[in-house]
Amino acid sequence: MGYFDSREIRGLMLFIPLMLLVGVGWFVVEVRRMDHRVETLQLADDPLPADSIHLFYFDPNTISYDSLKLLGFSKMQARQLLHYRAAGKVYRMAEDLDGIYGMTDSLFQRVRPYVRIGREYAFQPKAQGAWREFDSAPRRTFQPPKAAIPIDSLTVEVLRAMGFSIRWSEAFVDCHRRRGIRSTEEMRELNFIGDSITDLLTPWLLFPAPKQDPFEAPVELNGADSATLRSVYGIGEKTVMEIIRYRNRLGGFHRVEQLAEVKGVTEANYEKILQQIWCDSFQIQKIDINFAPAERIKGHPYMEPRTFRKLISKRQQRKSKGGWSTVEEMVEEDILTPDEAQRLRPYLRFGTQESE
What we know:
Blueprint: H1 6-44, H2 65-70, H3 75-86, H4 105-111, E1 149-150, H5 156-162, H6 166-179, H7 184-189, H8 194-201, E2 205-206, E3 219-220, H9 226-230, H10 237-250, H11 267-274, E4 277-278, E5 287-288, H12 294-298, H13 305-319, H14 327-332, H15 338-344, E6 348-349
Parallel strand pairs: 1-2, 3-4, 5-6
Helix pairs in contact: 5-6
């Protein structure tokens, strides 16, 4: 007697091919998804080399795909901009570019000064005449404040009290929050503000003191805090912390070229950073090689584990002779190689009595 009757056998014959078909369909879908993910990753990581990038004025509402690539956009970033535009997105101001999926801070900061929005696309309140540039409400008059106001303290309510419309006030505050307006000239560059509004407002606005150009006032590498280092063009937030950690391990920078040893300092940014910094080698915290705690010596980035072990094993014997007096003596005793001695020389001192 068989295990299955004829009806069950027919059911199995239909069920097995159906399951095979479902399995093949699932496999095909997964392969396509994987190909799409791989393509997305490839497109997101193919900007032009730095020496091939050309900066020029452009309108994101009309620029072509090839021109975006010349500006340094990756394929993914360029396609996202065009995709948004095809879906009805209108770029009213440069800050709108920051909302593109895949846009990086470095790319946005590089191209923002070159954005020029055409008059037909720029945000402009409905207006007639000079006063209508900033408010379409009829019979509204400008009410100057009682005293000058820092631009960083300017709110929608304050602008409304001066006579501006709520829509324009919100646009101005949002633009300042995202861009940071720091001068009268920057106000005039914004299409939705205009010269007439700038002339009305600027007598009553206090702008922050302009920051010194780091190329004109180089930053001292050993004494700079995190905020000062962050002001150097080419040093990002993460790189600042790496610089400070490495500086502490070294005891200070002896030469600016040592910055190339810091994790996060890329070859592309290195040359730019060098033009904006200098270092005061007199601020270096030196190690007394004869008496410093072993932990402090071991933590120095130029002290190899092999070298550290030889140094510690011979230091006690050397103390009976007064310790080492020069780095050359350590080379003669085969504790340091000539290259190690050259790198460590600025960080060592040779005390004759324990002072640490």
